[in-house]
Amino acid sequence: MKCRIVNFNKQKNIATIQLQDKSQKEVDASKLQIRSEIIETYQDMVNMDILNEPELLENLKLRFQQNYIYTYVGPTLIAINPFKAIDKLYDQETLNTYFSIIESASDKSLYKQLQPHVFGITAQAYKYLFENNRNQALIISGESGAGKTENAKYCMKFLTSLGQNMQTTQEKLTGIKDLNIQRRKFQDVIQFWKLSGTQKQQEMIIRVDLVNM
């Protein structure tokens, strides 16, 4: 909770704080952490002036309240499951916006100028694949229900959508008319398989998915 220090006993390391309701109490100073009085949100939290757990959580909270569920911490993307649909978050217009990261060969920081997004970090990995000539990996981790599977789907949606302008060639070579349809069917099969039970174990525990593309 937010508070102000109104008195400090250096010998006992005890601070007298004033809470938002104007009440006061004494607490151990080691339990207090500095905070910013300026209400400001950051797309990339490495740019924050004050870096501690309360400030990081406050930034995530403020962004979440504005329907920004993605936030960068350097090369890491934090995703918070909104448990609701957010309009235009994954539509074609948004896809096209993040395609510009790949098309802009000169600016390596373009993905940080756009709003944090799973499309953005996927586009940057794709770009590094060719710029650095090295394999790339996207590691998606989190608790059950955090949105790992959905974000993995959107990673693959972005990558498969890159090839839509070569759709005619793909049809001739593979006979696949819509790569995104095939991707969704593949994901459904994988999801069913990893959640299915066995005779010895009624409920399968999700471990790790490894998808090579």
From TrEMBL:
Location of the Myosin motor domain: 40-213
Q: Does the keyword ATP-binding apply?
A: yes
Q: Which InterPro entries match?
A: Kinesin_motor_dom_sf (IPR036961), Myosin_head_motor_dom-like (IPR001609), P-loop_NTPase (IPR027417)
Q: GO molecular-function annotation terms?
A: actin filament binding; ATP binding; microfilament motor activity
Q: Which residues bind ATP?
A: 142-149
Gene3D superfamilies on file: Kinesin motor domain
Q: What is this protein called?
A: Myosin head, putative
